[in-house]
């Protein structure tokens, strides 16, 4: 995270450029011409997000590379999520609206791609089952359904169960599954992970900790362990801070995790809960503001 993107005007400029075509022009090396695009770009240069390209020709280039930069829609949605979350806080409401769930879904597209292309191929038993067309996937916090739909589209024959505590999310997930022509392979349930009662069923489970309140997480991890087949895998991104982060960044990650519902949980605590229910943590991957735990139910 570039620290200046915590500034509301900087986020606004980034989101507007992404939503209205200017960001796509930047990424394609084309000059910006519209007056408002140039005003946004000037602010992003001052903020250290962009730098001026070949002097005087109106082109700009990002100073840094981020996965979401390549997809302006996902970038606009990620910015929208941040702003909507902040607005909810100002208004003192916990209620997550349809627009925010949809924006979160689009912002999860990068995570879905990383899961199917980068992470699952490392998990031999789950990968084999999914590629073989017999794999079953558990999507905890299905939201707008992007992760389940991406997975089912990638592996024909794979099936997903998506659970969420918000009826609004399930309606969006149903639309997304239909849009991707995988509706008959995606089962959706209004259910908390804490109440999951499947046994020995899934080859792979996805559980993003930052959205799940702690009281549900501990019971949920035990329920997911029971729900996986022996040898099945849990992929669990966990919000985390590093000693290299500035104090502001660490505080912002903690604040964001609290607003999303799951709060910040330290690595040793996560390892303790996973081991306590019988998972073996085989590997961890470090991402921006999160650590991804790859844990296995022993075969
Ligand atoms: C931001 S969404 C994840 C985005 C999603 N991957 C997508 O493709 O849209 C996280 C979801 O977790 C859900 N959630 C929170 N607590 C939960 C719980 N205890 N059990 C199941 N889902 C939960 C939230 O309602 C929210 O919709």
Strand order, main sheet: write it out: 5-4-3-6-7-9-8
Query: Any idea what the radius of gyration is?
Result: 20 Å
Q: What structural category characterises the helix and strand content?
A: alpha/beta
Count structural domains: 2
- Counting DSSP H or I runs of 4 or more residues, the number of helices is 12
Q: What's the helix-strand series?
A: HHHEEHHHHEHEHEEHEHHEE
Helix % is 40-55%
The largest sheet is: 7 strands, mixed
Report how far the terminal alpha carbons are from each other: 39 Å
CATH class of the largest domain, named Alpha Beta
Structure description:
The protein is α/β, with parallel strands linked by helices and 299 residues long. Strand 6 (202-206), helix 10 and strand 7 form a beta-alpha-beta unit. The protein has two domains: 3-88, no CATH class; 108-296, 3-Layer(aba) Sandwich (Rossmann fold), CATH 3.40.50.150. It contains twelve helices and nine strands. The structure holds S-adenosylmethionine.
List the helices and strands and how they pair.
Blueprint: H1 8-20, H2 22-27, H3 35-46, E1 50-52, E2 60-62, H4 72-91, H5 98-107, H6 109-119, H7 124-131, E3 136-140, H8 146-154, E4 159-164, H9 167-179, E5 186-190, E6 202-206, H10 214-227, E7 228-239, H11 247-260, H12 267-277, E8 280-287, E9 290-296
Parallel strand pairs: 3-4, 3-6, 4-5, 6-7
Antiparallel strand pairs: 1-2, 7-9, 8-9
Helix pairs in contact: 1-3, 1-4, 4-5, 6-8
The chain binds S-adenosylmethionine.
S-adenosylmethionine (SAM) is lined by residues 101, 104-105, 108, 140-141, 143-147, 163-166, 169, 192-194, 211-212, 216, 261.
């Amino acid at each position: 995270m570039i620290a200046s993107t915590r500034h509301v005007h900087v986020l606004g400029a980034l989101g507007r450029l992404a939503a209205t075509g200017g960001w796509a022009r930047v990424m394609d090396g084309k000059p910006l011409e519209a007056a408002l695009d140039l005003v946004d770009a000037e602010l992003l240069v001052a903020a250290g997000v962009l730098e001026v390209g070949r002097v005087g020709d109106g082109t700009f280039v990002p100073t840094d590379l981020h996965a979401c930069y390549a997809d302006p829609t996902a970038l606009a949605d990620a910015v929208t999520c941040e702003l909507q979350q902040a607005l909810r806080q100002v208004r003192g409401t916990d209620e997550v609206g349809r627009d925010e769930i949809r924006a979160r879904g689009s912002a999860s597209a990068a995570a879905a791609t990383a899961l199917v292309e980068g992470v699952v191929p490392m998990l031999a038993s789950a990968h084999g089952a999914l590629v073989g067309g017999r794999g079953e996937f558990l999507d905890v916090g299905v939201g707008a359904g992007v992760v389940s739909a991406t997975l089912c589209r990638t592996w024909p024959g794979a099936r997903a169960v998506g659970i969420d505590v918000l009826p609004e999310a399930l309606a969006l997930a149903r639309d997304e599954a239909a849009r991707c022509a995988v509706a008959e392979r995606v089962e959706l349930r209004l259910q908390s992970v804490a109440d999951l009662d499947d046994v020995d069923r899934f080859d792979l489970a996805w559980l993003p900790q930052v959205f799940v309140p702690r009281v549900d997480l501990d019971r949920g991890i035990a329920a997911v362990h029971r729900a996986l087949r022996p040898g099945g895998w849990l992929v669990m991104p966990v919000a985390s801070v590093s000693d290299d982060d500035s104090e502001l960044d660490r505080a912002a990650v903690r604040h964001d995790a609290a607003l999303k519902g799951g709060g910040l949980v330290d690595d040793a605590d996560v390892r303790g809960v996973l081991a306590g229910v019988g998972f073996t943590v085989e590997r961890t991957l470090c991402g921006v503001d999160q650590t991804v735990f790859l844990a296995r139910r022993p075969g």
